[in-house]
Amino acid sequence: MSEGLLHPLAVAEAWKKVGRDVAIATVIETWGSAPRPVGSHLVIDGEGNFEGSVSGGCVEGAVIAEALDVIADRAAKTLEFGVADETAWRVGLSCGGRIRVYLESLSFDIERLNDCRDRREAVALITSLDDGKAFIAAEGQEIAPALRATLDGAFRSGKSALVEVEGKSFFLNVYLPPPEIVVIGAVHISQVLAPMAKLAGFDIRIIDPRTAFATPDRFPDVELVADWPIDVLKERPLDRYTALVAVTHDPKIDDFAIAEALRAGCLYVGALGSRKTHASRLERLRAEGFDDAVLAGIHAPIGLNIGASNPAEIAVAILADVIQSLRTREIVARDSVQQ
Question: The domain 180-328 is classified under which CATH number: 3.40.50.720, 3.40.50.300, 1.10.10.10, 3.40.640.10?
């Protein structure tokens, strides 16, 4: 989940560092037209200063008042609020709803949580609603077997949720890095793919050293870099939450980016071209030391097989393929464990 430039968790960490007492309110369940999604935060210090939102302004005053009591006695509590229809209209909703908010004093390792977020690592804060204990788990980290499948599913979906495991109630708040699509090639397909990807919630950047192709007029409101991938990707590397889409047909431009994506373990690596073109590409990548098991992960022909026959349809197929890869990706076990 994302809270914008000034994330409440970053504010909470800063307050903690200067010795302030901090309470954190989190939306753990919603019904109807709730103003804020599950997982949203409001942080409050001992003086009543706050950052974030759990209701778009409807119930923040009540939550802040309760937070001061939680800070004083260190006892977590769960609050439930109804948002009346007339109040809902004022915050842009068509009807009312209800929300449950979990309120706790800051006791978990917020520095580690924010460090994972800053390094673009998926991480979850797992809170027992039975005893208030909370711990942090990075994606792929070893965890109790009873929670493993549920947490892996949350990491794939990106959705925070209340869960029941072996008769105990937990709230899983998952924080995924914003998924990114990096397109190699400022071509017609990219012109259609860019706005669709943004609508689907992806960050997108397009890299192409050919200045005749990579122009702001052809790609308005898109991060566009008219330079070689070998230079751009060294400055800003790919990672496991990036999808690499290579569409130039030119091995001098595409090959380095594809190789970097394979090394980084990107969630998706796709390359445009015929089967003959791809066979030649595989030979070049084998020469760089990639084995067939790794090369089998390249999506080529690129995109889902929907019979796409023009740039717009190919863009749809690519985006669908990327989303499918994101939501069904394998959760890779980590070597070390820290809780």
Answer: 3.40.50.720
